[in-house]
Amino acid sequence: MAEKFVHYSGNGSLFKNDNKTPDNNQPVYSGSITLPDGTEQEIAAWVKVGANGKFLSLKLSDPYVKPEEGEEGEEVKKEAVQSKPEKSEDDPDLPF
Question: What angle do CA 18, 20, 25 make, to 5 degrees?
């Protein structure tokens, strides 16, 4: 696997998003940036039109970390199963 590129402090890069379609709200450009304090952030850019013409609208966010399989999903499933009250066929609250 290729090593992740590390930007100098205060620098970043944007790349055209090939998955962008007119039907979705994905950014036109996306990439990464290293802030002056060394923090890595993801950066996204949308092309918008305003009173003075076209401009880029930017958003910085924490890098996405893909959850490992079974990490949160299993716990949520277990909680959902445990929280369901079991009903018996002799339950007087049944409408039939």
Answer: 155
Taking Cα atoms as reference points, which of 29, 31, 26 lies closest to residue 16?
29
- Between CA 57 and CA 67 the distance in angstroms is 28
CA distance linking residue 15 with residue 32, whole number of Å: 9
Residue 87 lies in a domain: no
pLDDT tens digits for 47-74? 999 999 999 999 999 999 989 876 555 5
Q: Is residue 5 part of a domain?
A: no
Taking the CB of residue 58, how many other CB atoms lie within 10 A of it? 13
- What does residue 60 show for φ and ψ, rounded to 5 degrees? -100, 140
Q: Note down the domain range covering 31.
A: 12-82
Q: How far is CA 47 from CA 40, 65, 73, in A?
A: 23, 26, 36
